[in-house]
Design a protein that fits this description.
The chain has a five-stranded mixed β-sheet with strand order 2-4-5-7-6, with helices on one face. Strands 1-3-8 form a three-stranded antiparallel β-sheet. 67% of the residues lie in helices and 11% in strands. The protein is an alpha+beta fold. The chain folds into two domains: 153 residues, no CATH class; 156 residues, Histidine kinase-like ATPase, C-terminal domain (Heat Shock Protein 90, 2-Layer Sandwich), CATH 3.30.565. The chain is rod-shaped. The model has no long low-confidence stretch (mean pLDDT 76).
């Protein structure tokens, strides 16, 4: 809640506290300038200023509390506020009433304190109760609203920070693995290495272009995956196969570079040979895109940071609010990524 709005709320509250008893006494006496109306107006003005000041002090004292802390403190806070406000009200009423007797507006009673508690305070108590209750409701609402807004901002900033961190982990991870592949073929076949570099350049351009993008057209992501897989076949050739069966890919969006990470994960953790090729399939059911591969696990996985799949799961959760589904059945490893319909 903005500071300007808080000031407006307390200003309106101050006007109400002053106006309500004055109008109430005006209706009772029928004279807006009667001594009773003027005296109550002075009491209301001084009481309102002091109570609002007291309210602002409590607001500043409790402004840093979380919603959970405020809910726990509501009863003690109300008791403390009510006692403080009644003390202020009683003090102001006593001083103004006594001053009215001193200046000769009223004939002084024989026992001032007895008259104060018996005649003046009961009526004022009912009005003060209304003011105090309204003040506390406003105070607690503003405090709670501030706390909720602050937690929401912190939550959003935390999500943005997490997402930025996760995205920065994707690019170095991909580059590291690609350079490892390049290092294996550069001395064996210069032409193949040059072809690999050209493909790698196009792929990395895609990553850079979509670095700040949360969702991308599924058709673009599939085209990117085809290029990436062609790059992998430069080294593995017929040892690996990719089958894509997706209709109307242009009508959906997906987290960018997500399919590439899953294919990279399958290639990294599984053996592949011409006799036992690694089969990777990409399909869609309209709600998820599934990437599956036959399990041929390596006994030792080199240069694995273990960040690829966990990071992808976290990115998907932060962007879409949905979870990645991971299953293993019939010697097949399956990962399902949620997709978003463009028509929604």
């Amino acid at each position: 809640m903005k500071k300007k709005r808080i000031i407006i709320i307390f200003a309106v509250l101050l006007v109400f506290i002053i106006a309500y008893p004055v109008i109430y006494r005006w209706v009772q006496t029928g004279n807006p300038f009667s001594k009773e109306t003027v005296m109550l107006g002075i009491v209301a003005l001084l009481g309102a200023l002091l109570i609002c000041s007291f309210t602002l002090i409590l607001f500043r004292t409790n402004n840093g509390k979380s919603p959970a802390q405020l809910k726990k403190r509501i009863i003690p806070l109300f008791i403390f506020f009510a006692l403080g406000a009644f003390l202020i009200s009683f003090t102001v009423l006593s001083l103004v009433t006594y001053s009215a007797y001193l200046i000769g507006w009223y004939k002084p009673p024989e026992d001032f304190l007895s008259h104060l508690f018996r005649a003046e305070f009961p009526g004022a108590f009912r009005q003060f109760s209304i003011w105090i209750l309204i003040n506390f409701v406003v105070l607690f609402y503003v405090l709670l609203r501030q706390a909720i807004d602050r937690e929401q901002r912190l939550h959003e900033e935390n999500l943005k920070y997490q997402y930025r961190t996760l995205k920065t982990q994707v690019n170095p991870h991909f580059l590291f693995n690609s350079l490892n592949t390049l290092s294996e073929i550069v001395y064996m076949d210069a032409e193949k290495a040059d072809n690999y570099i050209q493909k790698l350049s196009g792929i990395y351009r895609y990553i850079l272009d979509n670095e700040e993008t949360d969702l991308i057209n599924l058709e673009q992501e599939i085209n990117f995956v085809r290029q990436y897989f062609d790059l992998q076949k430069v080294r593995d050739d017929s040892k690996i196969h990719l089958e894509i069966d997706i209709e109307n890919a242009d009508k959906f969006k997906i987290v960018p570079i997500s399919l590439q990470i899953l294919i990279e994960n399958a290639l990294k953790h599984n053996l592949a040979s011409e006799e036992k090729p690694l089969m990777i399939k990409i399909k869609s059911d309209g709600m998820y895109v599934s990437v599956s591969n036959n399990i041929q696990r390596k006994s030792i996985v080199k240069d694995s940071s273990g960040l690829g799949l966990p990071n992808l799961k976290e990115r998907v959760r932060l962007i879409s609010g949905k979870e990645v589904i991971i299953n293993q059945e019939n010697n097949t490893f399956i990962v399902k990524l949620p997709i978003v319909s463009i028509n929604k």
